[in-house]
């Protein structure tokens, strides 16, 4: 499943840098030593890493496995490429009766984001993405779609036209949705919730640039996340310390519809054309679903409108890299920055 390719696969400029210092063991007390346990797997078209702080390896592995099950669940139910998934059946039939609470929640949340972003975030963008991709496949024109093609397809793009009655979801004819700009963040939320229910109070889940961090490192400090310089992958532009917060970054410098196209993978649902307002947008938020959807939204909105929206939302901060390489931060972003990793 592709996430945030063309509003879908989230482009990551996050490079996580961790310095883990285990707490010294008091020999007299013989108390267990908190340690880091981790696992990495390929899910949701990206690399997912889960790390936890625990004193028992068996318990830690159990908690990690349970958290991975939540990520797999989101992938299997919200992957529109999978013909058996709920989302695929909704796109095929234009209706889905008795949808799961999880899918219903994500679709409802997506409609909310479409509203507060004035259409910059819209999960019904899939027909438009398919139109663009069709131009650059073997045998395609290798030219952008014609204006009339885009105008015609844009008639199908409007999340406000999704109807939800209880757990029944209805789409208008021809409409199709993708949850690539939000599902990964929701998967983080479910995984973190699973860890907490299993008694894990410190750790993180990172999914290809989306991260959710809880508690502290064994040395008592917050988790460190380096925001990577998009032009120099070995360097970071800043390091943030986060506890019980999620971070996501959207950018246009790694993935394209095709190398020939050289256009942003994140399209603007309002215009039908690729969004090229920023190089990247990083959002820190209390939940994974917020950081995921809002990083895409800000990227599409651009510097002025994106920053304005973030400043109006409680508990949300952002860092933007403009096309002329300026670094723009929301008013409260600096409180997360730390001197070193």
Features:
24% strand, alpha+beta, 341 residues, T-fold, eight-stranded antiparallel beta sheet, 2 domains, 15 strands, four-stranded antiparallel beta sheet, single chain
Total number of distinct structural domains: 2
Beta-sheet strand percentage?
15-25%
Q: Which word captures the global form?
A: globular
Tally the beta strands: 15
Query: What is the fold-level CATH name, i.e. the topology of the largest domain?
Result: T-fold
What is the helix content? 25-40%
Structural class estimated from helices and strands: alpha+beta
GO molecular function, one term: metal ion binding
Protein name: FAD:protein FMN transferase
Catalytic activity: L-threonyl-[protein] + FAD = FMN-L-threonyl-[protein] + AMP + H(+)
Enzyme class: transferase
Describe this protein's structure.
By secondary structure, this protein is of the alpha+beta class. It folds into 2 domains: 14-78 and 182-338, Roll (T-fold); 86-170, T-fold (Orthogonal Bundle). Helices cover 30% and strands 24% of the residues. The protein is built from 8 helices and 15 strands. The chain has helices spanning 57-77, 86-93, 101-116, 126-135, 147-154, 183-197, 288-301, 303-312; strands at residues 14-15, 35-43, 46-54, 95-96, 163-165, 168-170, 203-207, 210-214, 223-229, 232-242, 245-251, 278-285, 317-322, 327-329, 337-338. An 8-stranded antiparallel β-sheet has the order 2-3-7-8-11-12-13-14. The protein has a 4-stranded antiparallel β-sheet with strand order 1-9-10-15, with no helix packed on it. Strands 4-6-5 form a 3-stranded antiparallel β-sheet. Strand 5 and strand 6 (168-170) form a beta hairpin. The longest helix has 21 residues, at 57-77. It is globular, with a radius of gyration of 20 Å. The chain starts with 13 loop residues before the first strand and ends with a strand. Mean pLDDT is 88; it is low at 4-28. Keywords: FAD, Flavoprotein, Lipoprotein, Magnesium, Metal-binding, Transferase. Its cofactor is Mg(2+).
């Amino acid at each position: 499943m592709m996430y945030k390719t063309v509003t879908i696969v989230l482009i990551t400029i996050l490079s996580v840098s961790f310095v883990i210092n285990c707490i010294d063991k008091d020999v007299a007390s013989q108390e267990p030593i908190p340690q880091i346990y981790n696992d990495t797997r390929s899910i949701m078209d990206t690399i997912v890493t889960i790390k936890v702080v625990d004193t028992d390896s068996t318990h830690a592995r159990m908690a990690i496995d349970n958290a991975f099950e939540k990520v797999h669940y989101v992938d299997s139910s919200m992957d529109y490429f999978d013909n058996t998934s709920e989302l695929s059946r909704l796109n095929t039939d234009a209706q889905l009766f008795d949808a799961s609470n999880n899918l219903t929640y994500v679709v409802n949340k997506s409609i909310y984001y479409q509203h507060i972003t004035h259409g910059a975030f819209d999960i019904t963008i899939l027909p438009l993405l398919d139109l663009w991709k069709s131009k650059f496949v073997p045998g395609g024109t290798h030219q952008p779609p014609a204006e009339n093609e885009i105008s015609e397809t844009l008639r199908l793009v409007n999340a406000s036209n999704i109807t939800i009655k209880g757990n029944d979801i209805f789409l208008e004819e021809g409409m199709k949705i993708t949850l690539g700009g939000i599902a990964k963040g929701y998967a983080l939320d479910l995984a973190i919730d699973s860890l907490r229910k299993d008694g894990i109070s410190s750790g993180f889940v990172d999914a290809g640039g989306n991260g959710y961090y809880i508690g502290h490192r064994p040395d008592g400090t917050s988790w460190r996340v380096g925001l990577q310089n998009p032009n120099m992958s070995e360097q970071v532009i800043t390091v943030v310390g986060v506890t019980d917060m999620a971070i996501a970054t959207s950018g246009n410098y790694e993935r394209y519809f095709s190398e020939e196209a050289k256009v942003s993978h994140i399209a603007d649902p309002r215009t039908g054309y690729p969004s090229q307002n920023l190089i990247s947008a990083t959002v820190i938020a209390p939940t994974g679903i917020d950081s995921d959807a809002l990083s895409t939204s800000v990227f599409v909105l651009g510097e002025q409108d994106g920053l304005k929206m973030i400043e109006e939302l409680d508990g949300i901060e952002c860092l933007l890299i403009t096309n002329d390489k300026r670094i723009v931060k929301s008013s409260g972003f600096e409180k997360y920055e730390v001197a070193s990793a």
